[in-house]
Amino acid sequence: MTGRAPVALYVHIPFCVSLCPYCDFVVYAGAAARGPRNRIEAFIAALETEIDLRADALDRAEPADRRPLETAYLGGGTPSLLPPDAVARLVGRIRDRFGLAADAEVTLESNPGRDERGDPAAWRQAGITRLSIGAQSLDPVELADLGRRHTPADVADTIAAAREAGIGSIGLDLLYDIPGSSLAGWMTTLEGALELDPDHLSLYALTLDDPDAEGLTGAGGDHLSTTAGARRWRSRARPRQDEDRA
């Protein structure tokens, strides 16, 4: 097994409470998108079927020496919106069909909003060993511009709850190069994140590759027309970025 690449699995959970205006992932927002409990049951059953199909294909490709997964990642979307028993079912099916190494890392993505974060104790009971928290920023103004539903305090509360639940690894996602931001503001967010003592930080540049396809939020939280929104963000960004370069 020396020199062989680790085996990993990603499972996409495409549900969110609301759509962030910069997001280009495949997601469906609102309670109507998730639907009643029986629709969630049908979605989980379909995922279990796909897990079986993928595992069967691997069995055919590596019938004699198929290695267990070293990492499994439930991403989204907002997987923490799923009921804990649904997460437990998915983790159980992954374990049964792919196998999980003794030290496997099983990650769940969670948003820190109070109606999004779920119950870290229930996640641990379901087999989650790592929580990836979509903080994105620790600046309230930036969070509002990004269409996020949480506050900086919610991020701290989610980390504290995860630690108390015994989840052994916690990651924070942060966005930089947010229009209207400054180097000083970015340093404040980084310092605040380090004070929260996560085990891992993931830093991503905000990209607006196709402004005409984006809906961005205005000061009141309303969605601007796509082109106007991109122009406003850029016009706000340039003076602050020029200040930082001076």
Structural account:
The protein contains 8 helices and 8 strands. It has a single domain (8-209), classed as Aldolase class I (TIM Barrel, Alpha-Beta Barrel). Helix 2 packs parallel to helix 3. The chain is an alpha/beta fold and 246 residues long. The model is unreliable at 212-246 (pLDDT under 50). A 6-stranded parallel β-sheet has the order 1-4-5-6-7-8. Strand 5 (100-110), helix 4 (120-125) and strand 6 (130-136) form a beta-alpha-beta unit.
* Content-based structural category: alpha/beta
| Count of the separate structural domains | 1
CATH homologous superfamily label = Aldolase class I
Biggest β-sheet strands, sense, barrel: 6 strands, parallel
Strand order of the largest sheet: 1-4-5-6-7-8
CATH topology: TIM Barrel
Q: Any idea of the CATH class?
A: Alpha Beta
- CATH level-two architecture: Alpha-Beta Barrel
Rg over CA atoms: 20 Å
Inertia-based shape: globular
Mean pLDDT: 84
Approximate strand percentage: 15-25%
Query: Could you give the count of β-strands?
Result: 8
Tally of alpha and pi helices: 8
Please report the distance between the alpha carbons of the first and last residues. Answer: 54 Å
Order of secondary-structure elements: EEEHHEHEHEHHEHEH
- Helix content percent band: 40-55%
